Amino acid sequence: MPAVPGRAPLLLELDLTIPPIEVEPEDVLGKLRSRSRPRLRAVLRALHEAGDSPRVRGLIVKVGGAELPWAVMQELRAGLVAFAASGKPTLAWAESLGEGNGTVDYVLATGCAEIWLQPSGELGLLGVAAETTFVRGALDKLGVEPQLDKRHEYKSAADRIMQTEFTPAHREAVDRIVESTWDTGVTAIAAGRSLSEQQVRELADTAPLSAQDALDAGLIDRVGYRDEVYGDLRKRLGAVELLFADRWSPRRSPAQRMRRGGVVALVEGHGEIAGGRSGSGPRGRRMGSDTVSAALRAAREDEKVRAVLFRVDSPGGSAVASDTIWREVVLTREAGKPVIVSMGALAGSGGYYIACPADVVLAQPTTITGSIGVLGGKIVLTELLARLGLTTGVVARGGSARMYSLREGFTDGERERLSAMLDRVYADFVQKVADGRGMSVDAVDNVARGRIWSGADAVGNGLVDQLGGIRDAARIARERGGLRPDAPVRPAVRVSPLERLRRPASSEDPRAARAVAGWGELAALAQLLELPFGGPLSMPALRLV
């Protein structure tokens, strides 16, 4: 391919030994730590579009050790395959894929046309496993009694606290997730390396493999060091300049830059669902119902917005906050603006609740979704407090004033009321899914009951419309909104620095996090159990987790 006049040809570099960032950190320390990490959407743009650029001659990708979620890996791998379809060289190389389980990194590498491995490296194509820690035994020794109820038998978030081992339903659901994930990986490897799936499974049973054994088995193409990898590519491509893939951007003509027209609004939904504003806290990212609802309203009221792309990556959270967001999604659809959901690595329980009313729902094959159910209750610390020499004085009015106090157990009447609340929330959840997905209540209940599903299985049971990533969702949003194929995707709400300064400190503020940590063992225990903890020993009753 001839060089573009006045500009040197490019070889794009991509370092996937560290996970790309999808959501920009808001705190200063997080921004500093993330400076050297690639941005996921910029990477995906380069992988899907740079192959068509006359200036770009090839792509070299370093893999290994990133511990990418399977769904994120699949999104990136689809981009590698798209770039390779241009016919330009795509090369993945690793120092090792065997210091631990290298299965995810190797599946990612098979999206490239060529794979190199350092001579001292190994290929740890070991398979897929899931391990669950059950804390009930530790709670018993501490004198902590969990009093939780759930809907229904597959709602395993409660089992991790209430049980000491897998229940049959819990094991069944996790076993299918592992099986589906491994099947997906085997299929991808077989396609990328021109092997049969049976060959891939047999080779995995003999792993980890040395670099030479991996070469002999056809799992890699060359053995060599970094200088040999780059030297080989330079011989093939000639004089090229190196450019990080996430720094590449397509050239737009003046006419393209001057175009006016409709846009797709991007609404971000990442982290545990709670009331208030989105942000970061001691337990990671937080999806605030105020922030997400405001973004959906802004998209609904903006005349330029023709469709909404709702990115959901959440394990669930507050039932009430989930319902608040759900309502805004419904109102956006009713306003005539299509809502397209792109699921990330996780969109379960509350994460599915807010996704189910969308026009189209997309997931990766290994996205964890479903978990249509609810749990509620409390942990009782009476015995632990007594061991610590702490006593309780009580002044109360109202027969149920202490229903959610962690200092005493539920009465029989309180258990009945909790059970009735769980039944109401579950029935409402199932009905909303039935309405959003066009299914009968019985059909939803058959795939609900708290069970998690892989994205691949969710397509089969009607919870998800099709497999795909965020760029697929953007394409569908443009089509549904009647927009041109290159119509921009823009955030629905831009928060100014002044607005951030005006925000009051909350429990997600780092200073508040330090204050929470100051409560010692009780706060640590609450965080271990993934339960809220503050000054008063009380907790919300209903969780979609």
Q: What is the strand and helix layout of this fold?
A:
Elements: E1 10-15, H1 28-33, H2 40-49, E2 56-62, H3 70-84, E3 90-94, H4 103-109, E4 114-117, E5 122-123, H5 136-142, E6 145-151, H6 156-162, H7 168-193, H8 197-204, E7 209-210, H9 211-216, E8 222-223, H10 226-237, E9 241-244, H11 254-257, E10 263-270, E11 272-274, E12 279-281, E13 284-288, H12 289-301, E14 305-314, E15 317-318, H13 319-334, E16 339-348, H14 350-353, E17 360-363, E18 368-370, E19 374-380, H15 382-387, H16 412-437, H17 441-447, E20 452-454, H18 455-461, E21 466-467, H19 470-480, E22 489-491, H20 497-502, H21 510-517, H22 521-528, E23 542-544
Parallel strand pairs: 1-2, 1-9, 2-3, 3-4, 4-8, 10-14, 10-22, 11-13, 14-16, 16-17, 16-18, 17-21
Antiparallel strand pairs: 5-7, 6-19, 12-13, 15-23, 18-20, 19-23
Helix pairs in contact: 2-3, 3-4, 4-7, 7-8, 12-13, 16-17
Structural class: alpha/beta
Low-confidence stretches: 495-540
The percent of residues in helical segments reads 40-55%
Principal-axes geometry comes out as: globular
Q: Count the helices. How many?
A: 22
Largest sheet: 8 strands, mixed
Name the beta content range. 15-25%
> What is the mean predicted local confidence, pLDDT?
89
In total, how many beta strands?
23
Radius of gyration: 25 Å
C-alpha termini separation: 53 Å
